[in-house]
Write a structure and sequence with these properties.
Elements: H1 24-38, E1 44-47, E2 52-53, E3 70-73, E4 80-88, H2 96-113, E5 118-128, E6 131-138, H3 160-174, E7 179-187, H4 202-215, E8 218-224, H5 230-236, E9 241-243, H6 248-267
Parallel strand pairs: 4-5, 4-7, 7-8, 8-9
Antiparallel strand pairs: 1-3, 2-3, 5-6
Amino acid sequence: MARATKNRSQEVIGYGRREPYVDGATLAAIQTVFNRTRLSHQGWEGRQLHGRLDTRAVWRSDAKGNIDIFRERHMPSPTRLDVHILVDASGSMFGARACRAQDMAGTLVKAFERIPTVRLHVWQHNASGGVTNIYRLYEPGQSPEGMNNMLNNIAGGNADGFALEAVGMRAAKAKRPDTGALVILISDGLPSVTGTGATGNILDHSALVVHNLRSKGVSVLGVAVAGDIAAHRHMYGESNTVNFTGDWAELSRDFAAVFGTVLRKGAKT
């Protein structure tokens, strides 16, 4: 994937090979938030008599020793992160939405490629004949060429909940104590496929999948590319949802804020 000029973000085609646009500002914001979160002191607690010397507090100490000049880690703070990017490839994504999702995924790939403690995976999904299809686009050590062919997979129905469950459980099984797990679902937020476990409202099924994954220590973040984010907020929660209608300046700000919140929550799981 080559970094392109800003005008490339407006390019929209149906099917065929297309290199994702990579937005430099969003890339930098993601890297900055990740580094600040990993290096923060959120996992430490002050101590007066034992622990690691906290140089930030030593100057405040007095003769009575009443200041906590030591600190110790009181909860896990993962230093590594497994990121699974899951992109909706259903028919309703055809055209501008699919290109927008491809550009978002391409920007995320470039951002995380430069962070050695992140292990990155990229998937697409759709459904046909009641079966959820999941396409592997990118794994660590592989060529990102699969990212250039994302538009050719657009077809069928939307099975966000089922695809999220499959990829999320994969992340949960691979999770280690020193490793966080995050699934970023990029979609138009219009699930259309029912199946085993999806009785009643399909949005409720997706919300239940998200709840179960979070209980297993897997964070979930939703990116809405259709303009209406109500469905995404129902499935993922308002604080875990980002709206992306093509405004990269807005996305850079909003994604960085939500991404940072998700990382901090994940450290406490």
